[in-house]
Amino acid sequence: MKTTALSDWLQQRLRRDGSEPVYRQLQQLLRQAVISGELPAHTRLPSSRLLAQELGIARNTVIDVYEQLAVEGCVVSRQGSGTVVADLSAERLPTPTRARSARGRGAGAEPGVAAGAEVADAHGAAQLSPRGEALLAAASVSTRQWGAFMPGVPDVTEFPARTWMRLENRRWRHPEPELLSYAPGGGLPRLREALAAHLRTARSVVCEPEQLILTTGSHQSIDLTLRLLASPGEHVWLEDPCYWGLRSSLASLEARIVPVPVDAEGLAWQDGGPHPVPRAILVTPSHQYPLGMVMSLARRQALLAYARTHGSWIIEDDYDSEFRYGTRPLPALQGLDDAGRVIYVGSLSKVLFPGLRLGYLVVPPALAERFALGSAALYREGQAWQQATLADFIEQGHLGSHIRRMRGLYHERRQALLEAIRQHFGDTLAVRGDDAGLHLVLALPDHVDDVALARDALAAGVAVRPLSRYHADPARAPRGLLLGYACVRPEAIPPAFAVLARQVAARLGG
Protein backbone atom coordinates (compact mmCIF):
# COMPACT_ATOMS: atom_id res chain seq x y z
CA MET A 1 0.00 0.00 0.00
CA LYS A 2 1.63 3.24 -1.16
CA THR A 3 1.75 6.33 1.01
CA THR A 4 -1.00 8.09 -0.92
CA ALA A 5 -3.16 4.97 -0.89
CA LEU A 6 -2.60 4.56 2.88
CA SER A 7 -3.56 8.18 3.50
CA ASP A 8 -6.72 7.83 1.41
CA TRP A 9 -7.58 4.55 3.19
CA LEU A 10 -7.21 6.18 6.57
CA GLN A 11 -9.13 9.32 5.55
CA GLN A 12 -12.12 7.21 4.55
CA ARG A 13 -12.21 5.51 7.95
CA LEU A 14 -11.37 8.28 10.40
CA ARG A 15 -14.43 9.77 12.08
CA ARG A 16 -14.24 13.51 12.75
CA ASP A 17 -17.45 13.76 14.78
CA GLY A 18 -15.69 13.74 18.16
CA SER A 19 -17.16 10.36 19.17
CA GLU A 20 -13.67 8.90 19.63
CA PRO A 21 -10.22 10.54 19.79
CA VAL A 22 -8.43 10.61 16.44
CA TYR A 23 -5.22 9.17 17.87
CA ARG A 24 -7.09 6.11 19.15
CA GLN A 25 -8.82 5.56 15.81
CA LEU A 26 -5.53 5.91 13.95
CA GLN A 27 -3.81 3.48 16.28
CA GLN A 28 -6.58 0.88 15.88
CA LEU A 29 -6.71 1.22 12.08
CA LEU A 30 -2.96 0.84 11.62
CA ARG A 31 -2.78 -2.05 14.09
CA GLN A 32 -5.57 -3.92 12.29
CA ALA A 33 -3.97 -3.28 8.89
CA VAL A 34 -0.68 -4.78 10.11
CA ILE A 35 -2.34 -7.82 11.72
CA SER A 36 -4.59 -8.51 8.70
CA GLY A 37 -1.72 -8.18 6.24
CA GLU A 38 -3.13 -5.16 4.41
CA LEU A 39 0.16 -3.55 5.38
CA PRO A 40 2.67 -6.32 4.57
CA ALA A 41 5.83 -6.91 6.56
CA HIS A 42 8.70 -4.50 5.84
CA THR A 43 6.33 -1.88 4.37
CA ARG A 44 7.75 1.55 5.08
CA LEU A 45 5.21 3.87 6.66
CA PRO A 46 5.10 7.55 5.73
CA SER A 47 7.02 9.90 7.96
CA SER A 48 5.10 11.34 10.86
CA ARG A 49 5.30 14.82 9.30
CA LEU A 50 3.95 13.68 5.92
CA LEU A 51 1.12 11.52 7.32
CA ALA A 52 0.07 14.31 9.68
CA GLN A 53 -0.10 16.77 6.77
CA GLU A 54 -2.14 14.42 4.58
CA LEU A 55 -4.59 13.57 7.37
CA GLY A 56 -4.81 17.12 8.67
CA ILE A 57 -3.87 16.20 12.25
CA ALA A 58 -1.08 17.17 14.64
CA ARG A 59 2.30 15.58 14.02
CA ASN A 60 2.62 14.68 17.71
CA THR A 61 -0.50 12.54 17.33
CA VAL A 62 1.16 10.45 14.61
CA ILE A 63 4.40 10.25 16.60
CA ASP A 64 2.51 8.94 19.65
CA VAL A 65 0.70 6.34 17.53
CA TYR A 66 3.92 5.11 15.91
CA GLU A 67 5.61 4.83 19.31
CA GLN A 68 2.70 2.83 20.75
CA LEU A 69 2.63 0.47 17.77
CA ALA A 70 6.38 -0.04 18.20
CA VAL A 71 5.88 -0.96 21.84
CA GLU A 72 3.22 -3.49 20.76
CA GLY A 73 5.59 -5.00 18.18
CA CYS A 74 3.50 -4.01 15.15
CA VAL A 75 6.15 -1.71 13.68
CA VAL A 76 9.87 -1.21 14.00
CA SER A 77 11.50 2.22 14.08
CA ARG A 78 15.14 2.45 13.01
CA GLN A 79 17.36 5.48 12.87
CA GLY A 80 17.77 6.51 9.24
CA SER A 81 15.28 3.93 7.96
CA GLY A 82 12.04 5.39 9.24
CA THR A 83 9.17 3.22 10.51
CA VAL A 84 8.51 -0.16 8.87
CA VAL A 85 5.91 -2.85 9.48
CA ALA A 86 7.23 -5.69 11.65
CA ASP A 87 7.47 -9.27 10.38
CA LEU A 88 4.58 -11.19 11.97
CA SER A 89 4.89 -14.23 9.70
CA ALA A 90 4.37 -17.83 10.82
CA GLU A 91 8.11 -18.45 10.52
CA ARG A 92 8.68 -15.97 13.33
CA LEU A 93 5.69 -16.65 15.58
CA PRO A 94 4.11 -20.00 16.58
CA THR A 95 0.63 -18.94 15.41
CA PRO A 96 -2.33 -21.30 14.95
CA THR A 97 -1.83 -21.01 11.15
CA ARG A 98 1.66 -22.48 11.34
CA ALA A 99 0.64 -25.26 13.70
CA ARG A 100 -2.39 -26.05 11.56
CA SER A 101 -0.29 -26.51 8.44
CA ALA A 102 2.07 -28.75 10.37
CA ARG A 103 -0.85 -31.03 11.10
CA GLY A 104 -1.69 -31.28 7.45
CA ARG A 105 -4.91 -29.26 7.38
CA GLY A 106 -5.99 -27.99 3.99
CA ALA A 107 -5.39 -24.46 2.83
CA GLY A 108 -9.10 -23.81 2.85
CA ALA A 109 -9.48 -24.40 6.58
CA GLU A 110 -10.90 -21.43 8.43
CA PRO A 111 -8.65 -19.66 10.97
CA GLY A 112 -9.97 -18.56 14.34
CA VAL A 113 -10.65 -19.69 17.85
CA ALA A 114 -11.70 -23.21 16.93
CA ALA A 115 -8.47 -23.85 15.08
CA GLY A 116 -6.41 -22.46 17.92
CA ALA A 117 -8.30 -24.62 20.39
CA GLU A 118 -7.57 -27.73 18.35
CA VAL A 119 -3.87 -26.94 18.34
CA ALA A 120 -3.87 -26.27 22.06
CA ASP A 121 -5.60 -29.59 22.67
CA ALA A 122 -3.13 -31.43 20.49
CA HIS A 123 -0.19 -30.14 22.47
CA GLY A 124 -1.88 -30.19 25.87
CA ALA A 125 -1.70 -26.41 26.27
CA ALA A 126 -5.41 -26.13 27.09
CA GLN A 127 -5.45 -29.10 29.45
CA LEU A 128 -5.71 -28.57 33.18
CA SER A 129 -3.42 -30.37 35.57
CA PRO A 130 -4.81 -33.46 37.35
CA ARG A 131 -5.10 -31.30 40.46
CA GLY A 132 -7.05 -28.67 38.50
CA GLU A 133 -9.36 -31.29 37.04
CA ALA A 134 -10.00 -32.74 40.50
CA LEU A 135 -10.79 -29.27 41.83
CA LEU A 136 -13.39 -28.55 39.15
CA ALA A 137 -14.87 -32.05 39.39
CA ALA A 138 -15.69 -31.40 43.04
CA ALA A 139 -17.09 -27.90 42.44
CA SER A 140 -20.79 -27.20 42.84
CA VAL A 141 -20.94 -23.44 42.41
CA SER A 142 -24.44 -22.08 41.92
CA THR A 143 -25.29 -19.66 39.14
CA ARG A 144 -27.56 -17.87 41.58
CA GLN A 145 -26.57 -16.34 44.90
CA TRP A 146 -29.72 -14.61 46.09
CA GLY A 147 -33.45 -15.18 46.59
CA ALA A 148 -35.77 -18.03 47.47
CA PHE A 149 -34.54 -20.49 48.60
CA MET A 150 -30.77 -20.14 48.20
CA PRO A 151 -29.10 -21.69 51.29
CA GLY A 152 -26.30 -20.05 53.22
CA VAL A 153 -27.05 -16.48 52.11
CA PRO A 154 -27.88 -13.82 54.72
CA ASP A 155 -30.22 -10.90 54.08
CA VAL A 156 -27.67 -8.26 53.10
CA THR A 157 -30.43 -5.65 52.69
CA GLU A 158 -30.78 -5.58 56.48
CA PHE A 159 -27.13 -4.74 57.06
CA PRO A 160 -26.77 -1.35 58.85
CA ALA A 161 -25.10 0.29 55.88
CA ARG A 162 -25.53 3.84 57.19
CA THR A 163 -23.69 2.98 60.38
CA TRP A 164 -20.90 1.32 58.42
CA MET A 165 -20.65 4.27 56.03
CA ARG A 166 -20.46 6.73 58.93
CA LEU A 167 -17.61 4.76 60.52
CA GLU A 168 -15.76 4.51 57.23
CA ASN A 169 -16.25 8.18 56.31
CA ARG A 170 -14.82 9.23 59.64
CA ARG A 171 -11.62 7.41 58.78
CA TRP A 172 -11.44 8.97 55.32
CA ARG A 173 -11.34 12.43 56.86
CA HIS A 174 -7.91 11.65 58.30
CA PRO A 175 -6.55 8.66 56.31
CA GLU A 176 -3.89 6.59 58.04
CA PRO A 177 -1.22 5.52 55.52
CA GLU A 178 -0.67 2.14 57.17
CA LEU A 179 -4.33 1.23 56.57
CA LEU A 180 -3.93 1.77 52.83
CA SER A 181 -0.95 -0.58 52.63
CA TYR A 182 -0.66 -4.34 53.12
CA ALA A 183 -2.11 -5.64 56.36
CA PRO A 184 0.33 -6.84 59.03
CA GLY A 185 0.85 -10.58 59.42
CA GLY A 186 -2.20 -12.06 61.06
CA GLY A 187 -4.28 -8.93 60.50
CA LEU A 188 -4.87 -5.59 62.18
CA PRO A 189 -4.16 -5.88 65.95
CA ARG A 190 -7.21 -3.79 66.91
CA LEU A 191 -9.58 -6.09 65.05
CA ARG A 192 -7.92 -9.17 66.52
CA GLU A 193 -8.49 -7.73 69.99
CA ALA A 194 -12.12 -6.88 69.26
CA LEU A 195 -12.86 -10.30 67.76
CA ALA A 196 -11.14 -12.13 70.61
CA ALA A 197 -13.33 -10.31 73.14
CA HIS A 198 -16.45 -11.10 71.10
CA LEU A 199 -15.58 -14.80 70.72
CA ARG A 200 -14.82 -15.23 74.42
CA THR A 201 -18.28 -13.88 75.28
CA ALA A 202 -20.43 -15.20 72.44
CA ARG A 203 -18.83 -18.56 71.64
CA SER A 204 -16.87 -19.51 74.80
CA VAL A 205 -13.68 -19.61 72.74
CA VAL A 206 -10.53 -19.55 74.85
CA CYS A 207 -8.12 -17.19 73.10
CA GLU A 208 -5.91 -14.15 73.20
CA PRO A 209 -5.76 -11.63 70.32
CA GLU A 210 -2.39 -13.00 69.16
CA GLN A 211 -4.06 -16.35 68.41
CA LEU A 212 -6.38 -14.85 65.83
CA ILE A 213 -5.31 -14.90 62.17
CA LEU A 214 -7.51 -12.82 59.89
CA THR A 215 -8.30 -14.28 56.46
CA THR A 216 -10.66 -13.66 53.54
CA GLY A 217 -13.05 -16.37 54.74
CA SER A 218 -13.42 -20.04 55.60
CA HIS A 219 -11.95 -21.26 52.32
CA GLN A 220 -8.70 -19.40 52.87
CA SER A 221 -8.63 -20.33 56.55
CA ILE A 222 -8.80 -24.04 55.76
CA ASP A 223 -6.38 -23.67 52.86
CA LEU A 224 -3.81 -21.97 55.11
CA THR A 225 -4.28 -24.52 57.90
CA LEU A 226 -3.77 -27.56 55.69
CA ARG A 227 -0.87 -26.01 53.80
CA LEU A 228 0.95 -25.45 57.08
CA LEU A 229 -0.08 -28.58 58.97
CA ALA A 230 -0.57 -31.31 56.33
CA SER A 231 1.40 -32.62 53.37
CA PRO A 232 -0.01 -33.83 50.02
CA GLY A 233 -1.16 -37.43 50.28
CA GLU A 234 -1.95 -37.35 54.00
CA HIS A 235 -5.40 -38.46 55.15
CA VAL A 236 -8.02 -35.88 56.08
CA TRP A 237 -11.37 -36.86 57.55
CA LEU A 238 -14.49 -35.11 56.26
CA GLU A 239 -18.00 -35.42 57.58
CA ASP A 240 -20.26 -37.22 55.13
CA PRO A 241 -22.26 -35.28 54.02
CA CYS A 242 -20.36 -31.99 54.14
CA TYR A 243 -20.03 -28.66 52.38
CA TRP A 244 -18.87 -29.32 48.81
CA GLY A 245 -16.32 -26.47 49.01
CA LEU A 246 -14.29 -28.49 51.51
CA ARG A 247 -13.83 -31.25 48.96
CA SER A 248 -12.75 -28.66 46.39
CA SER A 249 -10.18 -27.19 48.78
CA LEU A 250 -8.79 -30.60 49.70
CA ALA A 251 -8.65 -31.66 46.05
CA SER A 252 -6.50 -28.63 45.25
CA LEU A 253 -4.18 -29.54 48.14
CA GLU A 254 -3.92 -33.18 47.01
CA ALA A 255 -5.14 -34.51 50.35
CA ARG A 256 -6.48 -38.05 50.65
CA ILE A 257 -10.11 -37.48 51.59
CA VAL A 258 -11.69 -39.95 54.00
CA PRO A 259 -15.51 -39.56 54.23
CA VAL A 260 -16.76 -40.37 57.74
CA PRO A 261 -20.53 -40.73 58.27
CA VAL A 262 -22.50 -38.69 60.76
CA ASP A 263 -25.33 -39.80 63.04
CA ALA A 264 -27.61 -38.03 65.51
CA GLU A 265 -24.56 -37.13 67.68
CA GLY A 266 -22.31 -35.90 64.89
CA LEU A 267 -19.17 -37.46 63.44
CA ALA A 268 -19.42 -41.25 63.88
CA TRP A 269 -16.15 -43.18 63.99
CA GLN A 270 -14.55 -45.92 66.02
CA ASP A 271 -11.04 -45.81 67.41
CA GLY A 272 -9.24 -48.61 65.61
CA GLY A 273 -12.06 -48.82 63.05
CA PRO A 274 -11.85 -48.82 59.26
CA HIS A 275 -10.85 -45.16 58.88
CA PRO A 276 -7.09 -44.51 58.65
CA VAL A 277 -5.55 -42.22 61.25
CA PRO A 278 -5.85 -38.70 59.81
CA ARG A 279 -3.56 -35.73 59.83
CA ALA A 280 -6.61 -33.47 60.14
CA ILE A 281 -10.33 -33.84 60.94
CA LEU A 282 -12.78 -31.25 59.61
CA VAL A 283 -15.99 -30.99 61.64
CA THR A 284 -18.98 -28.67 62.14
CA PRO A 285 -19.88 -29.68 65.72
CA SER A 286 -22.25 -26.85 66.66
CA HIS A 287 -24.46 -27.18 63.55
CA GLN A 288 -23.47 -29.98 61.19
CA TYR A 289 -23.51 -28.89 57.59
CA PRO A 290 -25.84 -29.59 55.92
CA LEU A 291 -27.97 -31.86 58.17
CA GLY A 292 -27.96 -29.66 61.28
CA MET A 293 -27.32 -32.06 64.17
CA VAL A 294 -25.23 -30.99 67.17
CA MET A 295 -22.23 -33.05 68.25
CA SER A 296 -22.93 -34.40 71.73
CA LEU A 297 -20.66 -33.59 74.65
CA ALA A 298 -19.59 -37.23 74.91
CA ARG A 299 -18.69 -37.32 71.22
CA ARG A 300 -16.78 -34.04 71.53
CA GLN A 301 -14.70 -35.35 74.40
CA ALA A 302 -14.04 -38.59 72.54
CA LEU A 303 -12.91 -36.67 69.45
CA LEU A 304 -10.55 -34.49 71.48
CA ALA A 305 -9.08 -37.58 73.15
CA TYR A 306 -8.61 -39.25 69.75
CA ALA A 307 -6.80 -36.20 68.35
CA ARG A 308 -4.57 -35.99 71.42
CA THR A 309 -3.67 -39.69 71.24
CA HIS A 310 -2.97 -39.80 67.50
CA GLY A 311 -1.53 -36.33 66.98
CA SER A 312 -4.35 -35.28 64.64
CA TRP A 313 -5.52 -31.72 64.16
CA ILE A 314 -9.21 -30.88 64.53
CA ILE A 315 -10.44 -28.06 62.29
CA GLU A 316 -13.68 -26.74 63.77
CA ASP A 317 -15.75 -24.86 61.19
CA ASP A 318 -18.17 -22.71 63.20
CA TYR A 319 -19.88 -21.18 60.19
CA ASP A 320 -23.28 -19.96 61.48
CA SER A 321 -23.67 -20.84 65.15
CA GLU A 322 -24.73 -17.31 66.11
CA PHE A 323 -28.20 -18.11 64.77
CA ARG A 324 -29.78 -20.69 67.07
CA TYR A 325 -33.51 -20.55 67.72
CA GLY A 326 -35.14 -21.34 71.07
CA THR A 327 -31.84 -21.85 72.94
CA ARG A 328 -28.62 -19.92 73.46
CA PRO A 329 -25.78 -20.51 70.97
CA LEU A 330 -23.77 -23.60 71.92
CA PRO A 331 -20.17 -23.30 73.17
CA ALA A 332 -17.45 -24.03 70.67
CA LEU A 333 -15.55 -27.31 70.72
CA GLN A 334 -12.36 -25.27 70.98
CA GLY A 335 -13.30 -24.20 74.49
CA LEU A 336 -12.98 -27.83 75.68
CA ASP A 337 -9.55 -28.37 74.14
CA ASP A 338 -6.78 -28.56 76.73
CA ALA A 339 -4.15 -30.09 74.46
CA GLY A 340 -3.90 -27.45 71.72
CA ARG A 341 -5.24 -29.69 68.93
CA VAL A 342 -8.19 -27.55 67.69
CA ILE A 343 -8.00 -24.92 64.96
CA TYR A 344 -11.15 -22.79 65.18
CA VAL A 345 -12.49 -21.37 61.89
CA GLY A 346 -15.00 -18.52 61.85
CA SER A 347 -16.43 -16.18 59.26
CA LEU A 348 -18.32 -12.91 59.12
CA SER A 349 -20.00 -13.76 55.81
CA LYS A 350 -23.22 -15.03 57.40
CA VAL A 351 -23.20 -12.51 60.24
CA LEU A 352 -22.58 -9.35 58.18
CA PHE A 353 -22.40 -9.82 54.41
CA PRO A 354 -20.44 -12.23 52.16
CA GLY A 355 -18.88 -9.47 50.07
CA LEU A 356 -16.91 -8.30 53.11
CA ARG A 357 -14.66 -11.36 52.65
CA LEU A 358 -13.39 -11.46 56.23
CA GLY A 359 -12.90 -14.60 58.28
CA TYR A 360 -10.54 -15.71 60.98
CA LEU A 361 -8.68 -18.58 62.56
CA VAL A 362 -8.04 -19.15 66.24
CA VAL A 363 -4.90 -21.28 66.54
CA PRO A 364 -3.13 -22.72 69.60
CA PRO A 365 -0.58 -20.29 71.10
CA ALA A 366 2.36 -22.41 69.93
CA LEU A 367 1.28 -21.95 66.29
CA ALA A 368 0.21 -18.30 66.36
CA GLU A 369 3.44 -16.66 65.22
CA ARG A 370 4.07 -19.20 62.46
CA PHE A 371 0.48 -18.94 61.14
CA ALA A 372 0.76 -15.15 61.02
CA LEU A 373 4.00 -15.43 59.06
CA GLY A 374 2.56 -18.12 56.79
CA SER A 375 -0.48 -16.01 56.01
CA ALA A 376 1.68 -13.02 55.08
CA ALA A 377 4.00 -15.19 52.96
CA LEU A 378 1.21 -16.95 51.04
CA TYR A 379 -1.41 -14.28 50.56
CA ARG A 380 0.18 -10.85 51.18
CA GLU A 381 -3.04 -9.60 52.70
CA GLY A 382 -4.62 -6.16 52.44
CA GLN A 383 -8.04 -5.03 53.66
CA ALA A 384 -6.55 -3.19 56.62
CA TRP A 385 -8.98 -0.34 55.96
CA GLN A 386 -12.01 -2.64 56.22
CA GLN A 387 -10.48 -4.34 59.24
CA ALA A 388 -10.19 -0.98 61.02
CA THR A 389 -13.81 -0.13 60.19
CA LEU A 390 -14.94 -3.53 61.45
CA ALA A 391 -12.99 -3.03 64.67
CA ASP A 392 -14.89 0.23 65.25
CA PHE A 393 -18.15 -1.57 64.40
CA ILE A 394 -17.51 -4.26 67.02
CA GLU A 395 -16.11 -1.99 69.73
CA GLN A 396 -19.14 0.32 69.54
CA GLY A 397 -21.54 -2.60 70.03
CA HIS A 398 -23.01 -2.69 66.52
CA LEU A 399 -22.03 -6.33 65.83
CA GLY A 400 -23.81 -7.70 68.89
CA SER A 401 -26.98 -5.70 68.26
CA HIS A 402 -27.00 -6.67 64.57
CA ILE A 403 -26.72 -10.38 65.42
CA ARG A 404 -29.57 -10.14 67.93
CA ARG A 405 -31.77 -8.33 65.43
CA MET A 406 -31.05 -10.76 62.58
CA ARG A 407 -31.65 -13.75 64.85
CA GLY A 408 -35.20 -12.48 65.38
CA LEU A 409 -35.77 -11.85 61.66
CA TYR A 410 -34.43 -15.25 60.63
CA HIS A 411 -36.54 -16.98 63.28
CA GLU A 412 -39.65 -15.36 61.77
CA ARG A 413 -38.68 -16.48 58.27
CA ARG A 414 -37.90 -19.98 59.43
CA GLN A 415 -41.36 -20.20 60.96
CA ALA A 416 -42.95 -18.98 57.73
CA LEU A 417 -41.14 -21.64 55.71
CA LEU A 418 -42.06 -24.42 58.15
CA GLU A 419 -45.70 -23.36 57.97
CA ALA A 420 -45.59 -23.37 54.14
CA ILE A 421 -44.14 -26.88 54.16
CA ARG A 422 -46.89 -28.08 56.53
CA GLN A 423 -49.62 -26.51 54.41
CA HIS A 424 -48.48 -28.26 51.24
CA PHE A 425 -47.19 -31.59 52.53
CA GLY A 426 -48.40 -31.99 56.10
CA ASP A 427 -46.19 -34.55 57.85
CA THR A 428 -45.43 -36.58 54.70
CA LEU A 429 -42.01 -34.95 54.18
CA ALA A 430 -39.64 -34.67 57.14
CA VAL A 431 -37.72 -31.50 57.97
CA ARG A 432 -34.21 -31.67 59.38
CA GLY A 433 -31.70 -29.19 60.74
CA ASP A 434 -34.10 -26.30 61.38
CA ASP A 435 -32.99 -25.52 64.96
CA ALA A 436 -30.21 -23.18 63.85
CA GLY A 437 -28.51 -21.53 60.91
CA LEU A 438 -29.93 -20.11 57.71
CA HIS A 439 -31.36 -23.22 56.03
CA LEU A 440 -33.25 -26.44 56.63
CA VAL A 441 -33.37 -29.77 54.81
CA LEU A 442 -36.57 -31.08 53.26
CA ALA A 443 -36.23 -34.86 53.11
CA LEU A 444 -37.47 -36.70 50.00
CA PRO A 445 -38.19 -40.36 49.19
CA ASP A 446 -35.26 -42.32 47.77
CA HIS A 447 -36.84 -42.63 44.33
CA VAL A 448 -36.83 -38.85 43.78
CA ASP A 449 -33.97 -37.43 41.73
CA ASP A 450 -33.15 -34.37 43.84
CA VAL A 451 -30.61 -33.06 41.31
CA ALA A 452 -33.24 -33.04 38.56
CA LEU A 453 -35.76 -31.54 40.98
CA ALA A 454 -33.38 -28.70 41.85
CA ARG A 455 -32.91 -28.10 38.13
CA ASP A 456 -36.70 -27.98 37.58
CA ALA A 457 -37.10 -25.57 40.48
CA LEU A 458 -34.43 -23.22 39.17
CA ALA A 459 -36.12 -23.16 35.77
CA ALA A 460 -39.32 -22.15 37.61
CA GLY A 461 -37.49 -19.34 39.41
CA VAL A 462 -36.66 -20.97 42.76
CA ALA A 463 -33.11 -21.87 43.81
CA VAL A 464 -32.55 -24.92 46.01
CA ARG A 465 -29.64 -27.32 46.45
CA PRO A 466 -29.87 -31.13 46.17
CA LEU A 467 -28.84 -32.94 49.34
CA SER A 468 -27.26 -35.85 47.46
CA ARG A 469 -24.56 -33.57 46.02
CA TYR A 470 -23.16 -33.03 49.52
CA HIS A 471 -22.40 -36.73 49.97
CA ALA A 472 -19.21 -38.49 48.93
CA ASP A 473 -21.27 -41.01 46.92
CA PRO A 474 -24.28 -39.10 45.51
CA ALA A 475 -25.70 -42.22 43.87
CA ARG A 476 -26.24 -43.90 47.27
CA ALA A 477 -27.05 -40.75 49.24
CA PRO A 478 -30.43 -39.95 50.79
CA ARG A 479 -32.49 -37.47 48.80
CA GLY A 480 -33.54 -34.04 49.91
CA LEU A 481 -33.41 -30.31 49.25
CA LEU A 482 -31.57 -27.58 51.13
CA LEU A 483 -33.87 -24.58 51.51
CA GLY A 484 -32.42 -21.26 52.61
CA TYR A 485 -34.83 -18.80 54.18
CA ALA A 486 -32.59 -15.99 55.42
CA CYS A 487 -32.70 -13.82 52.30
CA VAL A 488 -36.46 -14.21 51.69
CA ARG A 489 -38.90 -11.84 53.34
CA PRO A 490 -41.74 -13.58 55.25
CA GLU A 491 -44.46 -12.40 52.87
CA ALA A 492 -42.52 -13.78 49.88
CA ILE A 493 -42.07 -17.27 51.35
CA PRO A 494 -45.59 -18.73 50.79
CA PRO A 495 -45.82 -17.86 47.06
CA ALA A 496 -42.22 -18.93 46.42
CA PHE A 497 -42.75 -22.23 48.19
CA ALA A 498 -45.97 -22.81 46.25
CA VAL A 499 -43.88 -22.73 43.07
CA LEU A 500 -41.42 -25.20 44.55
CA ALA A 501 -44.22 -27.40 45.90
CA ARG A 502 -45.57 -27.91 42.39
CA GLN A 503 -42.17 -29.13 41.22
CA VAL A 504 -41.82 -31.42 44.25
CA ALA A 505 -45.32 -32.83 43.77
CA ALA A 506 -44.59 -33.60 40.13
CA ARG A 507 -41.48 -35.57 41.13
CA LEU A 508 -43.35 -37.34 43.91
CA GLY A 509 -45.92 -38.44 41.35
CA GLY A 510 -48.72 -36.47 42.97
From TrEMBL:
Domain HTH gntR-type: 20-88
InterPro entries linked to this entry: Aminotransferase_I/II_large, HTH_trans_reg/aminotransferase, PyrdxlP-dep_Trfase, PyrdxlP-dep_Trfase_major, Tscrpt_reg_HTH_GntR, WH-like_DNA-bd_sf, WH_DNA-bd_sf
UniProt keyword terms in alphabetical order: DNA-binding, Pyridoxal phosphate, Transcription, Transcription regulation
Coiled coil region boundaries: none
UniProt keyword Transmembrane helix present: no
Entry's Gene Ontology molecular function annotations: DNA binding; DNA-binding transcription factor activity; pyridoxal phosphate binding
Similarity comment text for this entry: In the C-terminal section; belongs to the class-I pyridoxal-phosphate-dependent aminotransferase family.
Protein name in UniProt: DNA-binding protein
